[in-house]
Write a structure and sequence with these properties.
Elements: E1 2-4, E2 11-15, H1 22-32, H2 40-49, E3 55-59, E4 62-70, E5 78-86, H3 95-105, E6 113-118, H4 123-135, E7 140-147, E8 160-165
Parallel strand pairs: 5-6
Antiparallel strand pairs: 1-2, 2-3, 3-4, 4-5, 6-8, 7-8
Helix pairs in contact: 1-2, 3-4
């Protein structure tokens, strides 16, 4: 799938990632300074084991953003989004919303729900997933604690709330 960037003439290509993309995903996450940075190995696994449910946005051969996601074994009708990132240079062009839609509509099986966890202070992600619910013409809920602060042990981390969109397309 190709879409035109709204602020430039560069072609944006949305595709599923491969292991060769893992390091670029790690670099984008590191540069974000806001996302939880996982090990490079984690991004390699996401690009290899969960490629069919994840997506990258490529501009002129460079990864501009990504969505890592998977289908939980106990919820085969749900796409669970792990991380969404857009490199600084490419923000403000709607890439995150386009990647979420692509990830939802191009899995190996039909889906009815899209989920993510978001901290209550992360207004950017709350806005993104609210807009994604509108794009998908589906109801959403954001009122259930998924992981409490206690679940993180001694690590200082805000609770993670479940953002659930769906049912979608019914």
């Amino acid at each position: 799938m190709s879409v035109q960037s709204s602020q430039s003439r560069d072609e944006v290509v949305l595709r599923h990632p491969g292991a060769e993309d893992g390091n670029q995903l790690w670099e984008i996450t590191k540069r974000s300074e806001t996302l939880d940075l996982n090990s490079p190995y984690h991004y390699l696994l996401m690009c290899r084991h969960f490629a069919a449910s994840s997506v990258v946005a490529e501009v002129n051969g460079r990864i501009a953003g990504f969505v890592t996601a998977y289908i939980p074994p106990e919820s085969s009708d749900t796409l669970f989004v792990w991380q969404v990132a857009v490199d600084r240079k490419f923000r403000g062009q709607g890439l995150a919303r386009k990647m979420l839609a692509f990830a939802f509509h191009h899995p190996q099986r039909p889906l009815s729900y899209l989920e993510a966890t978001i901290t209550p202070s992360n207004t950017a992600s709350i806005c993104l997933f609210t807009a994604a619910a509108q794009d998908l013409d589906a109801p959403f809920a954001f009122n259930e604690t998924f992981f409490s602060q206690k679940n993180f042990g001694s690590a200082e981390h805000e609770c993670e709330m479940l953002f659930r969109i769906g049912p979608i397309g019914l």
